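User: Fold this, then the next.

Assistant: Folding the first:
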Amino acid sequence: MRGARVRWYARGPRTTPDVMSEIRQLPLGVRWRDSSTFATFVQGGNALVLEQLRALRGGPPVALWLWGAPASGRTHLLQASCAYAGELGRTAAYLSPAGRDAPGPEALDGCESLDLVCIDDVETLSGQAGWERALFNLYNGLQESGGHLLLAATQPPAGVRWALADLQSRMGGALTLQVKGLAEADKVQVLRLRARNRGLELPEETAAFLLRHFPRDLRSLCRLLDTLDSASLAAQRRLTVPFIKEAIEAARQQQPAG
Protein backbone atom coordinates (compact mmCIF):
# COMPACT_ATOMS: atom_id res chain seq x y z
CA MET A 1 0.00 0.00 0.00
CA ARG A 2 1.13 3.53 -0.60
CA GLY A 3 2.29 5.67 2.26
CA ALA A 4 1.08 9.17 2.92
CA ARG A 5 2.33 11.68 0.40
CA VAL A 6 2.37 15.34 1.31
CA ARG A 7 3.93 18.39 -0.29
CA TRP A 8 3.50 21.90 1.05
CA TYR A 9 4.12 25.14 -0.79
CA ALA A 10 4.75 28.21 1.36
CA ARG A 11 4.34 31.13 -1.00
CA GLY A 12 2.16 34.19 -1.03
CA PRO A 13 0.87 36.54 1.66
CA ARG A 14 -1.91 34.37 3.09
CA THR A 15 0.27 31.82 4.92
CA THR A 16 0.72 32.86 8.55
CA PRO A 17 3.80 31.90 10.63
CA ASP A 18 1.61 29.83 12.98
CA VAL A 19 0.16 27.81 10.11
CA MET A 20 3.56 27.16 8.56
CA SER A 21 4.97 26.16 11.95
CA GLU A 22 2.26 23.50 12.26
CA ILE A 23 2.89 22.33 8.71
CA ARG A 24 6.62 21.92 9.23
CA GLN A 25 6.02 19.81 12.34
CA LEU A 26 3.82 17.24 10.59
CA PRO A 27 5.71 13.90 10.80
CA LEU A 28 4.86 12.84 7.26
CA GLY A 29 6.98 11.22 4.58
CA VAL A 30 7.19 13.19 1.35
CA ARG A 31 7.13 11.50 -2.05
CA TRP A 32 6.80 14.03 -4.80
CA ARG A 33 7.37 13.96 -8.53
CA ASP A 34 9.07 17.18 -9.59
CA SER A 35 8.18 16.28 -13.17
CA SER A 36 4.45 16.58 -12.41
CA THR A 37 3.61 19.83 -14.18
CA PHE A 38 1.00 20.86 -16.70
CA ALA A 39 3.73 21.00 -19.34
CA THR A 40 4.51 17.30 -18.89
CA PHE A 41 0.88 16.15 -18.90
CA VAL A 42 -0.18 14.65 -22.21
CA GLN A 43 -3.73 15.91 -22.39
CA GLY A 44 -5.34 13.61 -24.94
CA GLY A 45 -9.06 14.25 -24.50
CA ASN A 46 -8.56 16.26 -21.29
CA ALA A 47 -8.22 19.79 -22.66
CA LEU A 48 -11.21 20.99 -20.63
CA VAL A 49 -9.75 19.57 -17.42
CA LEU A 50 -6.51 21.48 -17.93
CA GLU A 51 -8.42 24.65 -18.75
CA GLN A 52 -10.43 24.42 -15.53
CA LEU A 53 -7.39 23.69 -13.37
CA ARG A 54 -5.47 26.65 -14.74
CA ALA A 55 -8.49 28.85 -13.98
CA LEU A 56 -8.50 28.07 -10.22
CA ARG A 57 -7.30 31.51 -9.13
CA GLY A 58 -10.14 32.78 -6.96
CA GLY A 59 -13.90 32.81 -7.13
CA PRO A 60 -16.19 29.83 -7.71
CA PRO A 61 -16.22 26.92 -7.69
CA VAL A 62 -14.97 26.23 -4.16
CA ALA A 63 -14.47 22.52 -4.93
CA LEU A 64 -13.48 20.73 -8.11
CA TRP A 65 -13.71 16.93 -8.25
CA LEU A 66 -11.58 14.96 -10.72
CA TRP A 67 -12.41 11.33 -11.26
CA GLY A 68 -11.01 8.64 -13.48
CA ALA A 69 -9.61 5.15 -13.63
CA PRO A 70 -6.38 4.25 -11.83
CA ALA A 71 -3.31 5.53 -13.68
CA SER A 72 -5.40 8.03 -15.64
CA GLY A 73 -3.25 10.96 -14.48
CA ARG A 74 -5.25 12.26 -11.52
CA THR A 75 -2.25 12.42 -9.18
CA HIS A 76 -0.18 14.13 -11.86
CA LEU A 77 -2.86 16.79 -12.28
CA LEU A 78 -3.17 17.46 -8.55
CA GLN A 79 0.56 17.83 -8.10
CA ALA A 80 0.80 19.93 -11.25
CA SER A 81 -1.91 22.22 -9.86
CA CYS A 82 0.18 22.73 -6.72
CA ALA A 83 3.26 23.48 -8.81
CA TYR A 84 1.30 25.93 -10.94
CA ALA A 85 -0.06 27.68 -7.85
CA GLY A 86 3.50 28.05 -6.59
CA GLU A 87 4.58 29.59 -9.89
CA LEU A 88 1.83 32.19 -9.44
CA GLY A 89 3.00 33.02 -5.93
CA ARG A 90 0.04 31.29 -4.31
CA THR A 91 0.00 28.83 -1.41
CA ALA A 92 -1.00 25.22 -1.94
CA ALA A 93 -0.94 21.80 -0.30
CA TYR A 94 -1.13 18.26 -1.68
CA LEU A 95 -2.19 15.30 0.42
CA SER A 96 -2.87 11.63 -0.25
CA PRO A 97 -4.44 9.98 2.79
CA ALA A 98 -4.30 6.46 1.35
CA GLY A 99 -1.86 3.94 2.74
CA ARG A 100 -0.77 2.20 5.91
CA ASP A 101 1.13 5.23 7.24
CA ALA A 102 -1.54 7.76 6.31
CA PRO A 103 -1.89 10.87 8.48
CA GLY A 104 -4.91 11.65 10.61
CA PRO A 105 -7.45 14.39 9.97
CA GLU A 106 -5.27 16.85 11.88
CA ALA A 107 -3.23 17.06 8.68
CA LEU A 108 -5.89 19.49 7.43
CA ASP A 109 -5.53 21.85 10.41
CA GLY A 110 -4.72 25.34 9.15
CA CYS A 111 -5.18 24.45 5.50
CA GLU A 112 -8.14 26.81 5.20
CA SER A 113 -5.55 29.60 5.11
CA LEU A 114 -4.11 28.31 1.84
CA ASP A 115 -5.14 29.25 -1.67
CA LEU A 116 -5.39 25.66 -2.91
CA VAL A 117 -5.71 22.32 -1.13
CA CYS A 118 -5.43 19.13 -3.21
CA ILE A 119 -6.59 15.82 -1.73
CA ASP A 120 -5.94 12.60 -3.64
CA ASP A 121 -7.86 9.34 -3.10
CA VAL A 122 -10.58 11.31 -1.32
CA GLU A 123 -13.08 8.46 -1.49
CA THR A 124 -10.97 6.57 1.08
CA LEU A 125 -12.07 9.14 3.69
CA SER A 126 -15.80 8.34 3.49
CA GLY A 127 -17.21 6.77 6.63
CA GLN A 128 -14.37 8.09 8.82
CA ALA A 129 -16.03 10.53 11.20
CA GLY A 130 -12.90 12.52 12.03
CA TRP A 131 -11.90 12.94 8.40
CA GLU A 132 -15.41 13.82 7.29
CA ARG A 133 -15.69 16.56 9.91
CA ALA A 134 -12.22 17.90 9.04
CA LEU A 135 -13.06 17.90 5.33
CA PHE A 136 -16.37 19.66 5.98
CA ASN A 137 -14.65 22.34 8.08
CA LEU A 138 -11.95 22.75 5.43
CA TYR A 139 -14.56 23.28 2.72
CA ASN A 140 -16.30 25.94 4.78
CA GLY A 141 -13.03 27.65 5.63
CA LEU A 142 -11.90 27.78 2.02
CA GLN A 143 -15.30 29.09 0.98
CA GLU A 144 -14.96 31.95 3.45
CA SER A 145 -11.36 32.76 2.52
CA GLY A 146 -11.76 32.44 -1.26
CA GLY A 147 -9.57 29.35 -1.55
CA HIS A 148 -10.15 26.19 -3.57
CA LEU A 149 -10.41 22.48 -2.84
CA LEU A 150 -9.26 20.11 -5.57
CA LEU A 151 -10.23 16.49 -5.05
CA ALA A 152 -9.46 13.29 -6.95
CA ALA A 153 -11.15 9.90 -6.83
CA THR A 154 -11.83 6.84 -8.94
CA GLN A 155 -15.54 7.70 -9.20
CA PRO A 156 -17.73 10.80 -9.36
CA PRO A 157 -19.20 12.38 -6.19
CA ALA A 158 -22.51 10.52 -6.61
CA GLY A 159 -20.66 7.24 -6.12
CA VAL A 160 -19.18 8.17 -2.74
CA ARG A 161 -21.42 8.02 0.34
CA TRP A 162 -20.58 10.39 3.18
CA ALA A 163 -22.06 9.78 6.63
CA LEU A 164 -22.11 13.53 7.28
CA ALA A 165 -25.15 14.80 5.38
CA ASP A 166 -23.80 18.35 5.07
CA LEU A 167 -20.58 17.01 3.57
CA GLN A 168 -22.57 14.91 1.11
CA SER A 169 -24.29 18.10 0.00
CA ARG A 170 -21.00 20.01 -0.35
CA MET A 171 -19.35 17.26 -2.36
CA GLY A 172 -22.41 16.87 -4.55
CA GLY A 173 -22.10 20.52 -5.50
CA ALA A 174 -18.48 20.27 -6.62
CA LEU A 175 -17.62 20.95 -10.25
CA THR A 176 -17.05 17.42 -11.55
CA LEU A 177 -14.72 16.51 -14.41
CA GLN A 178 -13.70 13.12 -15.70
CA VAL A 179 -10.04 12.48 -16.47
CA LYS A 180 -10.23 10.39 -19.62
CA GLY A 181 -7.85 7.61 -20.51
CA LEU A 182 -5.31 8.10 -23.27
CA ALA A 183 -5.29 6.61 -26.75
CA GLU A 184 -2.33 4.45 -27.77
CA ALA A 185 -0.61 7.29 -29.63
CA ASP A 186 -0.89 9.48 -26.53
CA LYS A 187 0.61 6.73 -24.36
CA VAL A 188 3.57 6.54 -26.73
CA GLN A 189 3.99 10.29 -26.26
CA VAL A 190 3.85 9.89 -22.47
CA LEU A 191 6.58 7.25 -22.49
CA ARG A 192 8.83 9.25 -24.79
CA LEU A 193 8.32 12.39 -22.70
CA ARG A 194 9.09 10.51 -19.49
CA ALA A 195 12.22 9.08 -21.06
CA ARG A 196 13.30 12.52 -22.29
CA ASN A 197 12.89 13.94 -18.79
CA ARG A 198 15.26 11.24 -17.58
CA GLY A 199 17.81 12.12 -20.24
CA LEU A 200 16.94 9.11 -22.41
CA GLU A 201 16.13 8.79 -26.06
CA LEU A 202 13.19 6.42 -26.54
CA PRO A 203 12.53 5.78 -30.23
CA GLU A 204 8.89 5.75 -31.23
CA GLU A 205 9.12 2.15 -32.45
CA THR A 206 10.49 1.10 -29.04
CA ALA A 207 7.64 2.81 -27.19
CA ALA A 208 5.13 1.16 -29.52
CA PHE A 209 6.79 -2.22 -28.86
CA LEU A 210 6.31 -1.76 -25.10
CA LEU A 211 2.62 -1.02 -25.64
CA ARG A 212 2.13 -4.12 -27.77
CA HIS A 213 3.90 -6.60 -25.51
CA PHE A 214 3.34 -5.42 -21.94
CA PRO A 215 0.43 -4.31 -19.71
CA ARG A 216 -0.99 -1.19 -21.30
CA ASP A 217 -1.82 0.84 -18.21
CA LEU A 218 0.52 3.79 -17.83
CA ARG A 219 1.52 3.02 -14.26
CA SER A 220 2.90 -0.38 -15.26
CA LEU A 221 4.50 1.00 -18.42
CA CYS A 222 6.24 3.80 -16.55
CA ARG A 223 7.58 1.36 -13.95
CA LEU A 224 8.85 -0.85 -16.77
CA LEU A 225 10.51 2.13 -18.41
CA ASP A 226 12.27 3.01 -15.14
CA THR A 227 13.56 -0.56 -14.88
CA LEU A 228 14.78 -0.56 -18.47
CA ASP A 229 16.44 2.79 -17.87
CA SER A 230 18.56 1.23 -15.12
CA ALA A 231 19.37 -1.77 -17.30
CA SER A 232 20.40 0.38 -20.26
CA LEU A 233 22.58 2.53 -18.02
CA ALA A 234 24.33 -0.52 -16.60
CA ALA A 235 24.86 -1.99 -20.07
CA GLN A 236 25.66 1.36 -21.70
CA ARG A 237 23.10 0.56 -24.39
CA ARG A 238 20.34 2.57 -26.04
CA LEU A 239 16.69 1.69 -25.46
CA THR A 240 16.12 -0.20 -28.69
CA VAL A 241 13.77 -3.12 -29.31
CA PRO A 242 16.64 -5.65 -29.55
CA PHE A 243 18.08 -4.42 -26.23
CA ILE A 244 14.70 -4.67 -24.49
CA LYS A 245 14.27 -8.25 -25.75
CA GLU A 246 17.75 -9.12 -24.47
CA ALA A 247 17.13 -7.49 -21.10
CA ILE A 248 13.83 -9.30 -20.62
CA GLU A 249 15.34 -12.65 -21.60
CA ALA A 250 18.23 -12.07 -19.18
CA ALA A 251 15.79 -11.26 -16.38
CA ARG A 252 13.83 -14.46 -17.08
CA GLN A 253 16.96 -16.58 -16.96
CA GLN A 254 17.88 -15.10 -13.58
CA GLN A 255 14.53 -16.08 -12.07
CA PRO A 256 14.70 -19.17 -9.85
CA ALA A 257 13.06 -22.26 -11.27
CA GLY A 258 9.75 -23.04 -9.65
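Now the next one, as you asked:
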Amino acid sequence: MNGMFAGKLLAVALFLAGTTPVFAQSVTETVKDSLRATPQDKKTFSLVHLRLEEMNSADRDLVESRARDIQQSALIYGYDLASGNWQVEQGVCPQLPDTLLLHYLERYPNGTQSLFTVLIPRTSGRVRVIPVLHRNAVPFLPSASNPSNYELFNSLVSPETAQKDSVAGGEWLSLGVCYAEMVGGKPNVPSDPSLDPATIKAPAPTVYKDSVTGQRSIRFPDRDAADVVKMWSISLDSKGRVIAASNEDTATYTARVVVPAVESARPRPPVAERAPNAIVNPPVSRSKITAMPPDPPSRIIANPPEPPVKIIPESRQE
Protein backbone atom coordinates (compact mmCIF):
# COMPACT_ATOMS: atom_id res chain seq x y z
CA MET A 1 0.00 0.00 0.00
CA ASN A 2 2.76 2.39 0.92
CA GLY A 3 4.50 1.63 -2.38
CA MET A 4 1.34 2.28 -4.36
CA PHE A 5 0.72 5.53 -2.49
CA ALA A 6 4.29 6.66 -3.06
CA GLY A 7 3.95 5.88 -6.76
CA LYS A 8 0.81 7.96 -7.00
CA LEU A 9 2.52 10.87 -5.24
CA LEU A 10 5.42 10.61 -7.68
CA ALA A 11 3.09 10.65 -10.67
CA VAL A 12 1.27 13.70 -9.33
CA ALA A 13 4.57 15.47 -8.68
CA LEU A 14 5.80 14.77 -12.21
CA PHE A 15 2.51 16.02 -13.68
CA LEU A 16 2.67 19.24 -11.70
CA ALA A 17 6.30 19.74 -12.64
CA GLY A 18 5.42 19.59 -16.33
CA THR A 19 2.62 22.16 -16.16
CA THR A 20 3.05 25.89 -16.65
CA PRO A 21 1.29 28.31 -14.31
CA VAL A 22 -1.30 30.53 -16.00
CA PHE A 23 -1.16 34.25 -15.27
CA ALA A 24 -3.77 36.92 -15.88
CA GLN A 25 -3.74 38.64 -19.27
CA SER A 26 -2.63 42.25 -19.38
CA VAL A 27 -5.03 44.93 -20.60
CA THR A 28 -2.94 45.42 -23.73
CA GLU A 29 -2.19 42.64 -26.21
CA THR A 30 -0.47 42.62 -29.56
CA VAL A 31 -1.28 40.42 -32.50
CA LYS A 32 1.75 38.21 -31.93
CA ASP A 33 0.25 37.22 -28.57
CA SER A 34 -3.31 36.66 -29.76
CA LEU A 35 -3.09 34.71 -33.01
CA ARG A 36 -2.29 31.38 -31.45
CA ALA A 37 -4.11 29.50 -34.22
CA THR A 38 -2.06 31.22 -36.92
CA PRO A 39 0.90 29.23 -38.32
CA GLN A 40 4.27 30.47 -37.13
CA ASP A 41 5.41 31.29 -40.68
CA LYS A 42 2.33 33.38 -41.46
CA LYS A 43 3.34 37.04 -41.48
CA THR A 44 -0.04 38.58 -42.30
CA PHE A 45 -3.63 38.13 -41.15
CA SER A 46 -6.68 38.38 -43.39
CA LEU A 47 -10.05 36.73 -43.80
CA VAL A 48 -10.63 33.93 -46.28
CA HIS A 49 -12.03 35.25 -49.59
CA LEU A 50 -13.93 33.14 -52.10
CA ARG A 51 -15.09 33.91 -55.61
CA LEU A 52 -18.63 33.01 -56.55
CA GLU A 53 -17.57 29.73 -58.15
CA GLU A 54 -15.50 28.81 -55.05
CA MET A 55 -18.37 29.22 -52.58
CA ASN A 56 -20.13 26.17 -51.23
CA SER A 57 -23.38 25.11 -52.88
CA ALA A 58 -25.57 26.34 -50.00
CA ASP A 59 -24.15 29.86 -50.21
CA ARG A 60 -24.36 29.94 -54.01
CA ASP A 61 -27.99 28.87 -53.82
CA LEU A 62 -28.64 31.60 -51.26
CA VAL A 63 -27.14 34.26 -53.54
CA GLU A 64 -29.19 32.99 -56.48
CA SER A 65 -32.43 32.91 -54.48
CA ARG A 66 -31.94 36.50 -53.24
CA ALA A 67 -30.64 37.87 -56.56
CA ARG A 68 -33.74 40.03 -57.14
CA ASP A 69 -33.53 41.50 -53.62
CA ILE A 70 -29.83 42.22 -54.09
CA GLN A 71 -30.45 43.99 -57.41
CA GLN A 72 -33.29 46.14 -56.06
CA SER A 73 -31.41 47.08 -52.88
CA ALA A 74 -28.28 47.99 -54.85
CA LEU A 75 -30.29 50.13 -57.29
CA ILE A 76 -31.48 52.29 -54.40
CA TYR A 77 -27.89 53.41 -53.90
CA GLY A 78 -27.20 53.89 -57.61
CA TYR A 79 -25.60 50.52 -58.42
CA ASP A 80 -27.01 48.87 -61.54
CA LEU A 81 -26.22 45.15 -61.54
CA ALA A 82 -28.04 44.66 -64.84
CA SER A 83 -25.18 46.39 -66.67
CA GLY A 84 -21.44 46.24 -66.39
CA ASN A 85 -19.12 43.47 -65.34
CA TRP A 86 -19.46 43.02 -61.58
CA GLN A 87 -17.08 40.80 -59.65
CA VAL A 88 -18.52 39.05 -56.59
CA GLU A 89 -16.39 37.86 -53.69
CA GLN A 90 -17.29 36.45 -50.28
CA GLY A 91 -15.49 37.41 -47.11
CA VAL A 92 -15.72 34.58 -44.58
CA CYS A 93 -16.16 36.26 -41.19
CA PRO A 94 -16.16 33.93 -38.13
CA GLN A 95 -18.01 36.54 -36.04
CA LEU A 96 -20.96 36.58 -38.50
CA PRO A 97 -21.97 32.91 -38.82
CA ASP A 98 -25.59 33.78 -39.66
CA THR A 99 -24.76 36.34 -42.36
CA LEU A 100 -23.29 35.97 -45.83
CA LEU A 101 -20.95 38.90 -46.54
CA LEU A 102 -20.31 39.75 -50.21
CA HIS A 103 -18.31 42.45 -51.99
CA TYR A 104 -19.51 43.66 -55.41
CA LEU A 105 -16.79 45.38 -57.42
CA GLU A 106 -16.76 46.87 -60.92
CA ARG A 107 -13.66 48.37 -62.56
CA TYR A 108 -14.00 50.91 -65.38
CA PRO A 109 -11.64 51.53 -68.33
CA ASN A 110 -10.62 54.94 -66.96
CA GLY A 111 -9.23 53.34 -63.78
CA THR A 112 -12.14 54.20 -61.46
CA GLN A 113 -14.20 51.60 -59.64
CA SER A 114 -17.50 51.12 -57.83
CA LEU A 115 -17.80 49.00 -54.70
CA PHE A 116 -20.51 48.03 -52.24
CA THR A 117 -21.11 45.35 -49.60
CA VAL A 118 -24.11 43.02 -49.49
CA LEU A 119 -25.23 41.31 -46.26
CA ILE A 120 -27.61 38.37 -46.74
CA PRO A 121 -29.15 36.65 -43.70
CA ARG A 122 -28.81 32.87 -43.92
CA THR A 123 -32.27 32.29 -42.44
CA SER A 124 -34.72 35.11 -43.08
CA GLY A 125 -34.65 38.88 -43.15
CA ARG A 126 -33.92 41.75 -45.49
CA VAL A 127 -30.87 42.12 -47.67
CA ARG A 128 -28.62 45.01 -46.61
CA VAL A 129 -26.42 47.08 -48.91
CA ILE A 130 -23.56 49.31 -47.73
CA PRO A 131 -22.33 51.79 -50.38
CA VAL A 132 -18.56 52.24 -50.42
CA LEU A 133 -17.48 53.77 -53.76
CA HIS A 134 -19.19 55.28 -56.81
CA ARG A 135 -16.54 55.54 -59.52
CA ASN A 136 -13.96 56.32 -56.82
CA ALA A 137 -16.29 58.82 -55.09
CA VAL A 138 -17.08 58.08 -51.44
CA PRO A 139 -20.48 58.78 -49.85
CA PHE A 140 -21.03 61.97 -47.86
CA LEU A 141 -20.63 59.85 -44.72
CA PRO A 142 -17.79 57.38 -45.39
CA SER A 143 -18.86 53.80 -44.73
CA ALA A 144 -16.17 53.20 -42.10
CA SER A 145 -17.31 56.09 -39.87
CA ASN A 146 -21.06 55.98 -40.51
CA PRO A 147 -22.93 55.48 -37.17
CA SER A 148 -25.60 53.48 -38.99
CA ASN A 149 -22.98 50.87 -39.80
CA TYR A 150 -21.98 50.68 -36.12
CA GLU A 151 -25.55 49.75 -35.26
CA LEU A 152 -25.80 47.29 -38.14
CA PHE A 153 -22.62 45.48 -37.17
CA ASN A 154 -23.67 45.33 -33.52
CA SER A 155 -27.00 43.79 -34.52
CA LEU A 156 -25.25 41.05 -36.52
CA VAL A 157 -22.69 40.04 -33.86
CA SER A 158 -24.06 38.13 -30.90
CA PRO A 159 -23.59 39.67 -27.41
CA GLU A 160 -21.51 36.68 -26.28
CA THR A 161 -19.15 36.97 -29.26
CA ALA A 162 -18.82 40.73 -28.87
CA GLN A 163 -17.91 40.40 -25.20
CA LYS A 164 -15.50 37.50 -25.68
CA ASP A 165 -13.65 38.66 -28.79
CA SER A 166 -13.15 42.31 -27.86
CA VAL A 167 -10.55 41.73 -25.15
CA ALA A 168 -7.09 40.23 -24.82
CA GLY A 169 -7.26 36.47 -25.17
CA GLY A 170 -10.16 36.62 -27.65
CA GLU A 171 -10.20 36.82 -31.45
CA TRP A 172 -10.12 40.62 -31.32
CA LEU A 173 -8.21 41.10 -34.57
CA SER A 174 -10.70 38.94 -36.45
CA LEU A 175 -13.53 41.00 -34.93
CA GLY A 176 -11.92 44.25 -36.05
CA VAL A 177 -11.16 42.95 -39.53
CA CYS A 178 -14.76 41.72 -39.86
CA TYR A 179 -16.01 45.27 -39.29
CA ALA A 180 -13.51 46.58 -41.84
CA GLU A 181 -14.73 44.00 -44.37
CA MET A 182 -18.37 44.92 -43.76
CA VAL A 183 -17.68 48.56 -44.63
CA GLY A 184 -15.83 47.65 -47.83
CA GLY A 185 -12.28 47.01 -46.69
CA LYS A 186 -10.13 43.99 -47.39
CA PRO A 187 -7.41 44.26 -44.76
CA ASN A 188 -4.08 42.53 -45.12
CA VAL A 189 -2.65 42.98 -41.63
CA PRO A 190 1.09 42.47 -41.02
CA SER A 191 1.67 40.71 -37.72
CA ASP A 192 4.99 42.51 -37.31
CA PRO A 193 5.18 45.71 -39.44
CA SER A 194 8.86 46.17 -38.60
CA LEU A 195 9.73 43.21 -40.87
CA ASP A 196 8.76 45.22 -43.96
CA PRO A 197 10.78 48.38 -44.69
CA ALA A 198 7.67 50.01 -46.20
CA THR A 199 5.66 49.57 -42.95
CA ILE A 200 8.50 49.92 -40.48
CA LYS A 201 6.91 53.05 -38.98
CA ALA A 202 3.43 51.49 -38.60
CA PRO A 203 2.38 50.31 -35.11
CA ALA A 204 1.73 46.65 -34.47
CA PRO A 205 -1.91 45.44 -34.24
CA THR A 206 -3.03 46.02 -30.68
CA VAL A 207 -6.11 45.71 -28.47
CA TYR A 208 -6.46 47.92 -25.40
CA LYS A 209 -8.94 47.82 -22.56
CA ASP A 210 -9.43 50.75 -20.21
CA SER A 211 -9.35 49.38 -16.67
CA VAL A 212 -11.61 52.20 -15.41
CA THR A 213 -14.34 52.54 -18.05
CA GLY A 214 -14.05 49.07 -19.58
CA GLN A 215 -13.98 50.51 -23.09
CA ARG A 216 -11.85 48.75 -25.68
CA SER A 217 -9.89 49.86 -28.74
CA ILE A 218 -8.65 47.74 -31.64
CA ARG A 219 -5.95 49.20 -33.89
CA PHE A 220 -4.21 47.56 -36.83
CA PRO A 221 -2.36 48.56 -40.02
CA ASP A 222 -3.52 47.42 -43.44
CA ARG A 223 -1.13 47.24 -46.40
CA ASP A 224 -3.87 48.58 -48.67
CA ALA A 225 -1.63 49.17 -51.71
CA ALA A 226 2.00 49.17 -52.74
CA ASP A 227 2.51 52.76 -51.59
CA VAL A 228 -0.29 53.13 -48.99
CA VAL A 229 -0.77 51.85 -45.45
CA LYS A 230 -4.28 52.25 -44.02
CA MET A 231 -4.53 52.57 -40.25
CA TRP A 232 -7.78 51.23 -38.74
CA SER A 233 -9.00 52.28 -35.31
CA ILE A 234 -12.19 50.74 -33.87
CA SER A 235 -13.55 51.79 -30.48
CA LEU A 236 -15.92 49.58 -28.50
CA ASP A 237 -17.86 49.99 -25.27
CA SER A 238 -17.53 47.78 -22.21
CA LYS A 239 -19.76 45.14 -23.88
CA GLY A 240 -17.73 44.98 -27.07
CA ARG A 241 -20.15 47.06 -29.15
CA VAL A 242 -18.71 49.36 -31.82
CA ILE A 243 -19.14 53.03 -30.91
CA ALA A 244 -16.63 54.67 -33.31
CA ALA A 245 -14.34 53.75 -36.16
CA SER A 246 -11.96 55.42 -38.58
CA ASN A 247 -9.37 54.59 -41.20
CA GLU A 248 -6.59 56.84 -42.41
CA ASP A 249 -4.25 56.46 -45.36
CA THR A 250 -0.56 57.07 -44.81
CA ALA A 251 2.28 56.77 -47.28
CA THR A 252 4.63 53.84 -46.96
CA TYR A 253 8.13 54.58 -45.70
CA THR A 254 10.82 54.86 -48.37
CA ALA A 255 14.46 54.98 -47.38
CA ARG A 256 16.51 57.46 -49.36
CA VAL A 257 20.27 57.01 -49.58
CA VAL A 258 22.25 60.09 -50.57
CA VAL A 259 25.50 59.18 -52.32
CA PRO A 260 28.07 62.04 -52.38
CA ALA A 261 29.46 62.94 -55.78
CA VAL A 262 32.92 61.51 -56.40
CA GLU A 263 35.25 62.90 -59.07
CA SER A 264 36.31 60.44 -61.71
CA ALA A 265 39.65 58.86 -60.97
CA ARG A 266 40.16 57.73 -64.59
CA PRO A 267 43.72 58.67 -65.71
CA ARG A 268 44.19 60.97 -68.65
CA PRO A 269 45.27 59.34 -71.90
CA PRO A 270 48.89 59.80 -72.96
CA VAL A 271 49.77 62.63 -75.30
CA ALA A 272 50.13 60.23 -78.24
CA GLU A 273 46.50 59.02 -77.84
CA ARG A 274 44.99 62.45 -77.77
CA ALA A 275 43.40 64.03 -80.76
CA PRO A 276 45.82 66.24 -82.71
CA ASN A 277 43.68 69.36 -82.23
CA ALA A 278 42.74 68.60 -78.62
CA ILE A 279 43.28 71.44 -76.21
CA VAL A 280 44.80 70.25 -73.00
CA ASN A 281 44.63 72.57 -70.07
CA PRO A 282 44.18 75.83 -72.03
CA PRO A 283 46.06 78.73 -70.44
CA VAL A 284 44.13 80.87 -68.14
CA SER A 285 43.67 84.33 -69.61
CA ARG A 286 45.53 86.93 -67.63
CA SER A 287 44.50 90.54 -67.38
CA LYS A 288 46.76 93.08 -69.12
CA ILE A 289 47.60 96.17 -67.15
CA THR A 290 48.15 99.26 -69.31
CA ALA A 291 50.22 102.08 -67.79
CA MET A 292 48.67 105.51 -67.61
CA PRO A 293 50.11 107.92 -70.24
CA PRO A 294 52.33 110.70 -68.82
CA ASP A 295 50.96 114.20 -68.46
CA PRO A 296 52.02 116.60 -71.26
CA PRO A 297 54.84 118.99 -70.27
CA SER A 298 53.64 122.24 -68.87
CA ARG A 299 54.60 125.52 -70.65
CA ILE A 300 54.88 128.78 -68.75
CA ILE A 301 53.90 131.85 -70.81
CA ALA A 302 55.24 135.21 -69.58
CA ASN A 303 52.78 138.02 -68.97
CA PRO A 304 52.55 140.39 -71.99
CA PRO A 305 53.96 143.96 -71.56
CA GLU A 306 51.66 146.81 -70.66
CA PRO A 307 50.43 148.86 -73.66
CA PRO A 308 52.14 152.29 -74.09
CA VAL A 309 50.46 155.24 -72.47
CA LYS A 310 50.17 158.52 -74.46
CA ILE A 311 50.24 161.70 -72.40
CA ILE A 312 48.42 164.66 -73.89
CA PRO A 313 49.41 168.19 -72.72
CA GLU A 314 46.83 170.12 -70.75
CA SER A 315 46.80 173.03 -73.24
CA ARG A 316 45.54 170.77 -75.89
CA GLN A 317 42.87 169.36 -73.68
CA GLU A 318 41.17 172.70 -73.50
